[in-house]
């Protein structure tokens, strides 16, 4: 998606350790008009899928998922990190290792909100090693629901997550795939 | 706001320990159409305020804030819990005690995203003891920005947060104020 690639080039910053900072428009400060354009793009790409619900994981996926959901006319469910006292009854749970935070989180989704009848579109801001997506796929699998596809804003094409997901035969639509980036020159090459 | 009160009555559940569960439409599964109606209401209530940015805190405030922001045509910034390796440079930080999770969080906002020129609308899903809001107000104060007001989806009127915020002279627009609720009968009385 040209608009997103241009924005990453303009406002993204490459940091040492394979970190691409896009916090001025994607995951700390959030440009809602951009999210709507992303929603239009995914609605077009997944037009043939009978999506009933969008699933994401806290925190930085939530804003994108909620704005994007308007283009699919479905509710959003977000997987919660760590057990909340407010989640009662049964939950699906899994562990996710965060690339950014170098930590392992427990994430949970109430069983009430994903059922075998659901056709799920998973939305997230970043795809690096794919750990978050594997956790979400596990939850959807446990629920017996169908994964229609995955929409990612920024895929780091030089990390293994994209290949891992595509090798499972899951439809993955990343709106920007970074092929390589250089912390010294700041150069970003898209696939 | 009648629509929200009716929804709370219909789909909310009162639990022991002053817990009101609204996780089927507000803060785990999210009804985006409802969020848009809330956005229209706040846009009407704060129509005279020159708002430049919406501030919320992760995680459950983010979805509401992003959908609501479309009615103000401004970006959203969310305060992040705990230090992230991806936040560089200087940040505003404070500590917030969560009523729900019985924990103290460090929350941070990058100094780049709130400036003295900003007129801030704070949005969150719940107001109980007001700890989260006090943290966000502290951050806006540190930044030298102006707080135009606070929009809360559900205020627990029987806890001290609402009075605390109003006593500071800050404009607080809660779309539903629960005056009392009873875990045994399930009855919810709105102010």
Tertiary shape of chain A: globular
Helix-strand makeup class of chain A:
alpha/beta
The number of strands of chain A is: 11
Query: What is the residue-mean pLDDT of chain A, rounded to a whole number?
Result: 94
Radius of gyration of chain A: 16 Å
Number of helices of chain A: 5
Poorly predicted runs of chain A: none
What sequence of helices (H) and strands (E) makes up the elements of chain A? HEEEHEHEEEEHEHEE
Largest sheet of chain A, in brief, is:
8 strands, mixed
How much helical structure, as a percent, in the residues of chain A? 25-40%
Termini separation of chain A (Å)?
Answer: 11 Å
Largest chain-chain contact?
A-B, 41 and 41 residues
Oligomer type: homodimer
Strand order of the largest sheet of chain A: 6-7-5-4-8-9-10-11
Task: State which percent range the strand residues of chain A make up.
Answer: 35-45%
